[in-house]
Design brief:
This protein is of the alpha/beta class and about 725 residues long. Helices cover about 35% and strands about 20% of the residues. The strands form 7 sheets. Strands 15, 16, 17, 18, 19, 20, 26 and 27 form an 8-stranded mixed β-sheet that branches. The longest helix has 30 residues, at about 110-140. Residues about 155-160 and about 410-415 have low confidence and may be disordered. Bound molecules: S-adenosylmethionine (SAM). S-adenosylmethionine binds next to α12.
């Protein structure tokens, strides 16, 4: 076991072993010496005739034992250029020889045996720290050197998409966790006991770890920008530290890459996400409408499983994609953040003397992690093993397993944006059922919208495109050279090209859309076709607080909102939105808005109820999405599409009409529909030029110019802040 520590240091130079990258991480040389000091202090020094190898080492290599006197400050361990790495290796050999003499003479029995076991388990913990600390150190080096380049070729992920996430249900009840004092020969740390009863409500546990691809979805949904999912402390920290992705991730032109002990490589979409803090793990779970498991739930689920997985030695020292069925990856790959704070089990008593400082005094302000990681030595952990770190720490191999409360009707295979679930539940519970139109745009919905734009009867796209072409030179003149264009609801960014071709002096383009499947390829295509532009896509909801990419910095801004998407807001909300856009672009900024005009009712209704049924599919796709993502049970043949013009409100309304009396389950909730009852899914307000101008002015904009196409009428407004 001691030889393994030396092997871990073998790929490292003396310089690698001496440097310290941050206060939390220690130099490898210090780990080598400290684990040796531990045996010298707690075992060899029990003999009053023992002479320490070097009396100064007690000060240099004591970690945190107050009862053993003062010590080198932790953040200054990297300043210990002496003793040399060679001297530390010699120290290890001398102590090993002395230990062999002690163990050879008396054998390990009673208290000495316990201390030797503790010393060995302690050294295994430092073996993992050697790997995580050296990873952090090498990551600071601009040359990005690999700890072991040979690792890069081992176990390359060979599956292209993650296995779908499923949830395993556990009944709960009164269960026991922890290790009893008389558990037998197997070593365990004092914090794992005493064994005790815990009451668990029914719960569900994800069958595998969260993957990088799923984490990307969180990032693309603006997870790092949405305070509603974050604990307050985590939010403040994530903002002040500028967290946009897990530690070691770096954005490149082609996607994300990460740094591991194998060096830099593109992230593996199906591999478990790692190097996330508790705060991030918790925010991610909330965004999915789920939570992290408690440590009691985790231990209950793991208790009877073999302790096998991707640990150090056997594995490539990075988390690997899961394969198979049933609950997997509980052991190895990543430590799993639990929702439990690190506190003593009922009846916990720290040991007498200095070793009593080992665990007990850290039982505050930390969270428990379970299961071991790809850097944990094999045979080190068990189902009852309690690791703990502060919620902000990210440099360990820490990952995420989702959990949820169990329920009678939990189907549990989908993972869900928490906002969608809430809005659907609220909307279907109201007297006039409704669902916000922004939920039309999953991947299928975005594709269907593109198909609508091709329809003969859907005049808005055709007329607005022609109008934009005609007035593009005027619009280009209004956009400051070197400025940025920010587009809301950009979809496929097709109309944008008209502006970008005319305004050649623009420096940046930021498309903002709720649909990741639309915005990402559109942004890639614009970046390819307009290579001079900085393209900064934002997957986000423009009905919430708007946050622009920092790369737009102080560029002068023009906002663009085509497609009459502004008509989806009721007029008061439209004015509010326009006021927010005004403060976003700032003084001197401009706003180009495309707005559909009131016209003959027949023309209007035909555009939203086409003979080919594409708008119908678009509308009913919302039910398909609810079925898929929220466990809904809508029978699509029992619902119809309806578009009407509400003259009083001057708006097209889209509804989904129930064709019979029926009760529909969504997850565990049921909703009754009377025959003819509707779900109101979209409004599309129609304006006169004067009415829209008045609305814009109410929002603080000044109208520079407006162009109104003749029948079927559509207008483009140029506004100035
Ligand atoms: C009517 S389409 C217009 C698309 C395109 N701008 C055009 O003119 O053809 C509305 C677009 O806005 C996006 N969208 C709808 N609600 C949104 C919201 N709340 N936040 C961000 N994007 C949204 C949709 O994904 C879709 O791409």
């Amino acid at each position: 076991m001691r030889a393994r520590t030396k092997r871990l240091a073998a790929p490292l130079s003396a310089e690698d072993q001496t440097a310290q990258s941050m206060p939390d991480a220690s130099p490898v040389k210090w780990h080598l010496a400290h684990t040796t000091w531990f045996f010298e202090t707690f075992v060899l020094a029990r003999d009053p005739t023992y002479r320490p190898v070097d009396p100064t080492y007690g000060f240099l290599f004591n970690s945190y034992y107050e009862s053993l006197g003062p010590r080198q400050a932790r953040p200054a361990r990297g300043l210990l250029t002496r003793p040399s790495a060679d001297a530390v290796f010699a120290y290890r050999e001398q102590v090993d020889e002395a230990m062999e003499r002690v163990l050879g003479a008396t054998g390990a029995e009673g208290e000495v045996a316990d201390l030797v076991s503790l010393g060995l388990a302690h050294e295994e913990q430092h073996q993992e720290l050697i790997l995580t600390d050296v990873l952090h150190l090498l990551a600071q080096n601009p040359l990005q050197p690999a700890y072991d380049p040979g690792l890069a070729i081992t176990a390359k992920a060979d599956i292209a998409s993650p296995e779908p996430l499923s949830f395993i249900s556990f009944q709960g009840g009164l269960v026991e966790i922890g290790v009893s004092a008389n558990a037998g020969a197997q070593f365990h740390f004092d914090n794992e006991g005493p064994r005790h009863q815990v009451y668990l409500r029914p719960f569900r546990l994800a069958d595998r770890l969260t993957t990088n691809q799923e984490w990307l979805e969180f990032m693309e949904a603006g997870g790092y920008d949405r305070a509603e999912f974050w604990l307050s402390e985590g939010w403040t920290l994530a903002r002040s530290e500028g967290w946009r992705a897990p530690l070691y991730w770096r954005a490149t032109g082609e996607g994300w890459e990460t740094f591991s002990l194998a060096g830099t490589a593109p992230i593996e979409p199906c591999a478990p996400v790692t190097h996330v803090s508790y705060y991030e793990a918790d925010a991610y779970a909330r965004w999915r409408g789920l939570r992290l498991a408690t440590e009691a739930e985790w231990e209950h689920a793991a208790a009877n499983l073999p302790v096998a997985g991707n640990f150090a030695d056997e594995g490539p020292l990075r988390p690997q994609p899961s394969r198979g069925a049933g609950v997997r990856q509980l052991f190895g790959d990543c430590w799993e953040w639990t929702a439990s704070s690190y506190s003593p089990y009922p009846g916990f008593m720290p040991a007498q003397g200095a070793v009593g400082e080992y665990n007990g005094k850290f039982m505050i302000n930390q969270m428990v992690l379970r299961g071991g990681s790809c850097a944990t030595p094999p045979n080190h952990v068990s189902a009852s093993y309690r690791n703990f770190f502060h919620p902000h720490q990210r440099w360990q191999f820490s990952g995420v397993r989702l959990a949820s409360d169990g329920s009678a009707r939990a189907s549990g295979t989908a993972i869900v944006d928490a906002g969608f679930r809430q809005d659907v539940m609220d909307g279907l519970s109201a007297p006039q059922k409704s669902v916000p139109s922004k939920y039309f745009y999953d991947a299928a919905g975005s594709a269907l919208f593109e198909a609508i734009c091709e329809l003969e009867v859907y005049y808005p796209t055709r007329v607005e495109t022609a109008l934009l072409r005609a007035v593009a030179p005027d619009l280009a003149n209004a956009m400051p050279s070197g400025g940025a264009l920010i587009e809301f609801g950009s979809g496929s960014s097709v109309k944008t090209r008209i502006l970008l071709e005319a305004a050649t002096a623009l420096r940046a383009y930021a498309p903002v859309d709720i649909s990741a499947s639309a915005v990402q390829p559109a942004a890639d295509a614009i970046a390819r076709d307009f290579p001079h532009l900085l393209v900064a896509p934002v997957v986000g909801d423009f009905t919430r607080r708007l946050v622009l990419p920092p790369s737009l910095g102080s560029l002068r801004k023009t906002a663009f909102f085509p497609g009459s998407t502004i008509g989806n807001f009721p007029p008061a909300a439209a004015a509010e939105f326009m006021a927010r856009v005004r403060s976003l672009v700032g003084e001197g900024g401009a706003f180009i808005v495309g707005v559909d005009m009131v016209k003959d009712e027949k023309v209007l209704v035909a555009a939203y109820d086409d003979p080919e049924g594409v708008t119908r599919d678009f509308n009913l796709n919302l039910l398909r999405r609810i079925n898929r993502e929220l466990g809904g049970e809508f029978d699509l043949s029992a619902f119809a599409h309806r578009a009407i013009f509400n003259t009083e409100e001057s708006r097209i309304e889209m509804h989904i009409v129930s064709l019979r009396d029926q009760v529909v389950f969504v997850g565990s909730r049921s909703f009754a529909f009377a025959r003819g009852e509707t779900i109101h899914t979209e409004n599309s307000y129609k304006y006169t030029p004067e009415r829209f101008q008045a609305l814009a002015e109410k929002a603080g904009w000044r109208m520079v110019r407006r162009w109104v196409a003749p029948q079927p009428s559509f207008a483009v407004f140029l506004l100035s802040a």
